[in-house]
């Protein structure tokens, strides 16, 4: 096969979604817009699969781009094992989401623009996957942020959606600013924007990690993600499965060799804290999508913690498995919302009979998320937990808290997912009696069924109880920690079973209790931001405004008034001083001239009489 063919395919992969964005942006509610978008993504999936099967070795495409301080900055793209898998994953999930959207948003008046935004999102994510250096990655990174802003705020006429889009955009700017600073520090330390193989300084590594903190909603920048549920439900599936939030984990995989031991320790702590914080926040939520949003944050924290412990392969394994069952959960939640026209789980209940397919798929996807054996989530979690136990055993002391916390988060996941399944599908129905819930068409059910089918552990390992001989780990070719002891698997399953039992049996405390309120308000993170960030910033802004009005503007206005007064004074002096002297001299000359002229009559008699008079006067003066 000619070497040029894969290059042409890669160029096509990047171009297709961006051309789709341009073509669909101006389209209104035409249904063909969705089919065109899905067709372009389907074509991209075919090309990605072709590349994955025919380009086994890493390949690099590079050309000089610009000169910076005498050094050439390269326009560089690369395709390796991780990139091949991510290309297929992103295209597959995006295709299923778009097919689902055709029915879910069939009466949306801005359907063309919706699919245009999805194409932009996919194109930006593909750019991140194929980027060959940090500078190119950052350009597509910001494009993903723009696309997510447009999708979260798609229903911009709703105040909550507009506010959620702005919140996501601003919180991501915090992390992205630090990320850009880390990229510049990388160039300063290495003289290149390339992904290095040696650790940078701890400060540079932490700045690079901040890009992941914002994009993957890690502590403390995690509160934007639940609010992003104001966007369309298929967007939630795309955001939380294989695109925006997964970009942070992909970034960590790329920069992992560049992180110092101290930076990796911070990564581990942040990931562990996030998985517990988000799990607790999901515990008593009443919105079906917010529970899933916090579960995503929690699972991302688990992946980040795995990265920090050096278990890159385990984190990426969980990224792959999580994409399928989390997308299935969001799309199945969309089926429920489509049937009952509410996201409040307190107004559901008893839906397993009315929505049998949705019930079975939701139950299996929730079990995969919790880590039930024979499903993919169990395999990937065991790789992470086993690696964390081995990492802690090497260090001892306080490091033991990390695997303990990760095990607790597994139990917490089973607890809140079992509670959610109970509230939606079991018990007495609270659905409006005037409504008759029913299953949607197969354009909505089909993608959910397929995604749940891909969440079975057999697809990832021939041994459904062990992942350490998985073809996926071999394909990733990433550092993976040794398999944990057998007791760890039994302990994990026992904790999941305990959490699931408690989720079904226990009833929620009073809504006004401190525990429930702390969970509903995300551990009061937003309130802390309001008190310690927003309010001080607004106070400083108000102070600067008053200073500008009273001091700066006062000084400017004072100078202006003084200038006007000086101008009037100068005018007065000019008019009555300078002009007075000049005009006075002129009038004096005119008067004297008039007097002189009066004696110059031109008559001889007058001149003789004047001369006689003068002589007489002189004689008198002399006598």
What tags apply to this protein structure?
22 helices; 3% strand; 623 residues; mainly alpha; two-stranded antiparallel ribbon; single chain
How do the strands and helices of this protein lay out in sequence?
Blueprint: H1 4-24, H2 32-54, E1 59-68, E2 71-79, H3 81-104, H4 111-130, H5 134-152, H6 159-190, H7 202-215, H8 224-227, H9 233-241, H10 244-255, H11 261-282, H12 288-308, H13 312-340, H14 356-370, H15 376-395, H16 401-425, H17 442-453, H18 471-476, H19 486-505, H20 514-520, H21 525-599, H22 604-622
Antiparallel strand pairs: 1-2
Helix pairs in contact: 1-2, 1-4, 2-3, 2-4, 3-4, 3-9, 3-13, 3-17, 4-5, 5-6, 6-7, 7-10, 7-11, 9-13, 10-12, 10-13, 11-12, 11-16, 12-13, 12-15, 12-16, 13-14, 13-15, 13-17, 14-16, 14-17, 15-16, 16-19
Report on this model:
By secondary structure, the protein is mainly alpha-helical. Helix content is 72%, strand content 3%. The protein is built from 22 helices and two strands. The chain has helices spanning 4-24, 32-54, 81-104, 111-130, 134-152, 159-190, 202-215, 224-227, 233-241, 244-255, 261-282, 288-308, 312-340, 356-370, 376-395, 401-425, 442-453, 471-476, 486-505, 514-520, 525-599, 604-622; strands at 59-68, 71-79. The chain has a two-stranded antiparallel sheet. α12 (288-308) crosses α15 (376-395), α14 packs parallel to α17 (442-453) and α15 packs antiparallel against α16. The radius of gyration is 38 Å and the shape is elongated. The relative contact order is 0.07.
